[in-house]
Design goal:
The protein has a five-stranded parallel β-sheet with strand order 2-1-3-4-5, with helices on both faces. A five-stranded parallel β-sheet has the order 7-6-8-11-12, sandwiched between helices. The protein has a five-stranded mixed β-sheet with strand order 14-15-13-18-19, sandwiched between helices. Helix 2 packs antiparallel against helix 3, helix 5 packs across helix 9 and helix 17 crosses helix 18. A hairpin with a 2-residue loop joins strand 16 and strand 17. It is 53% helix and 16% strand. With 548 residues, the chain is α/β, with parallel strands linked by helices.
């Protein structure tokens, strides 16, 4: 059985077991409610208790497939709330309401089957092989130039001069990315994907940037748009953006819900959709769970014993580190005024129980994606798309702590472009920016998904390599050094090459992330002053003496 099918079957079995557990508990819950109310007159205390239980049933019943039970519980809940807000019911009304409460027992039927979303197993941590690109371009000079430039950046590029040849090759062996520069073939691309039974991330290169060209690309389902003659680094940048959208690490979701069975239902539904979800059933454990998970989104019940969701949202927002994490209430509260008031405490959205698995997954994924994109934009360098100075230092500190906890190696790398001032002085700052972008793309292409890369400042970069030995780090950076030296930059008919130097340090020799980075910097200094265009590993003498 394929891995994805096996995962889907595993999650489906777990969810079915949870529905059975809920159904088993449901009868006892209803019997307790009827016994509590039977033979008693209506009182504020009794109504508040029954209202709370009905509120939970109305929210959870539909989630587990008991749609009729959920509907009837909602009707009884609304009546109880009305009496609590106005006057206690008359005897006849109370008697009728109790009869309807007892009838809930008869509304229990086998729950409807809940359709589960397809599993999306995370890819984080798996080394990515060379990205395979199918390039369709009928201009032989531009096509060959772009093919060579992308190849030097680590991509595996096949250049097709016409659509018919490309179509046959793509059907026989689909690439990872399609780059199409022949606008007249736009209508044929969706038909090709229909024949394939899947779509490919597609970047269109157009001769014009007007609205008509952009609209045509959008109508053909294009994922990205650039104007010819786009250079290799610009094309590589858009390709990496498309790949990141499809290969990003799983969204991390923290579920805060006092109903443990319902919380587990949500957790399994999100996990089946490829997300990393954890649950907290005691509100006081929320902050500790957030420290461990660092969630992209918090899914929170509005009413919990001893702590409302609104109060907990305020507690979370007191910590500056969590001010940007989206909080989404998931509650059976249907009063729009109360929903709006609850969101004033710092929440971002409101979902109403009961909620289908498909809607829950879709809503969480959309909100988590927006939140992660905003966080990335705030932390990314505008020129290279890599992490900024502060963000890469923070990432290094996080990975250093994780490496210590797990007793695994961590390598820190500092990379600097050799004689970069000469590049700017000779060829101009726009060309210098192109060199910086090219090295950024090369680093991102050659490193693994779990590695982090940042532009430390100017022409200097930092890479954080978890679970990477010093020997592996040296081999990797030597390969990158040689590849970068092979890239030929062209400006106004003249071409030139640029080299890099790198310093590497391994975490087992240092007390904290700051010392580790300082050691990599000392090794880089030795490489620069030892002739440049080389990789050096930090030694004890270098660290002891600082920059030699």
């Amino acid at each position: 059985m394929p891995e994805q099918t096996a995962k889907a079957a595993h999650f489906a079995a777990q969810l079915a077991a949870l529905r059975e557990q809920f159904a088993h508990q449901l009868g006892g819950t209803l019997d307790e409610m009827v016994a509590r109310a039977d033979g008693h007159d209506a009182s504020g205390e009794l109504l508040r208790e029954l209202h709370g239980r009905l509120h939970k049933l109305a929210g959870s019943g539909g989630t587990f497939g008991f749609t009729e039970l959920s509907r009837q519980a909602r009707v009884l809940e609304v009546s109880a709330k009305t009496w609590l807000d106005t006057n206690l019911p008359a005897k006849d009304a109370w008697t009728t309401w109790l009869a309807d409460l007892q009838a809930l027992r008869q509304s229990i039927a086998p729950p409807a089957a809940v359709r589960q979303p397809a599993t999306q197993p995370p890819t984080h941590g798996k080394p990515r092989g060379p990205v395979r690109i199918a390039l369709i371009e009928d201009d032989p000079v531009y096509g060959e130039t772009l093919q060579l430039g992308l190849s030097l950046l680590g991509y595996e590029v096949t250049h097709h001069a016409g659509f018919s040849a490309a179509e046959s090759a793509i059907l026989a062996d689909p690439p990872d990315i399609l780059v199409a520069a022949m606008m007249e073939q736009l209508p044929a691309i969706p038909k090709l994907f229909e024949r394939m039974g899947q779509s490919l991330p597609t970047l269109f290169l157009a001769a014009h940037s007007d609205f008509a060209a952009r609209l045509a690309v959008a109508a053909a389902g294009g994922d990205a748009f650039l104007v010819k003659p786009a250079d290799a680094p610009s094309v590589a940048n858009r390709i990496e953006m498309l790949l990141q959208e499809r290969e990003m690490t799983p969204y991390r979701v923290l579920i805060v819900e006092d109903d443990e069975v319902l919380a587990e239902q949500y957790r399994l539904a999100l996990a089946a959709a490829g997300m990393l979800a954890e649950k907290v059933c005691q509100p006081q454990e929320t902050l500790a769970a957030m420290q461990n998970l660092s969630p992209d989104l918090i899914l929170m019940d509005l009413y919990m014993p001893g702590c409302s969701g609104a109060d907990l949202a305020r507690v979370i927002r007191y910590d500056e580190a969590w001010t940007g994490v989206p909080i989404v209430y998931l509650s059976a509260e249907g009063d729009l005024d109360k929903q709006t008031k609850a969101m004033d405490s710092g929440a971002d959205d409101f979902l109403t129980k009961p909620i289908s698995t498909q809607r829950l997954v879709g809503a969480v994924r959309a909100r988590a994606a927006r939140a992660r994109k905003m966080a990335e934009l705030m932390s990314q360098d505008s020129l290279t798309g890599l992490l900024k100075h502060g963000s890469i230092k923070e990432r290094l500190a996080q990975e250093f702590d994780r490496a210590e906890r797990q007793h695994k190696p961590l390598a820190a790398v500092m990379v600097d472009i050799d004689d970069f001032k000469r590049v700017n002085d000779t060829w101009g700052h726009p060309v210098g920016d192109q060199v910086i972008k090219t090295l950024g793309h090369l680093l991102r292409q050659r490193l693994r998904r779990q590695d982090s890369i940042g532009r430390y400042g100017g022409e200097e970069f930092v890479a954080v390599l978890p679970e990477c030995t010093s020997a592996d780090a040296v081999r990797l950076l030597e390969d990158i050094r040689q590849s970068f030296a092979a890239v030929r930059f062209v400006h106004q008919g003249e071409d030139f090459v640029v080299t890099l130097s790198a310093g590497i340090a391994s975490s087992e020799h240092y007390a904290d992330a700051q010392e580790l980075l300082a050691a990599a910097d000392a090794a880089l200094y030795v490489a620069k002053h030892g002739g440049r265009n080389q990789v050096r590993f930090a030694t004890a003498d270098q660290v002891k003496n600082g920059r030699e």
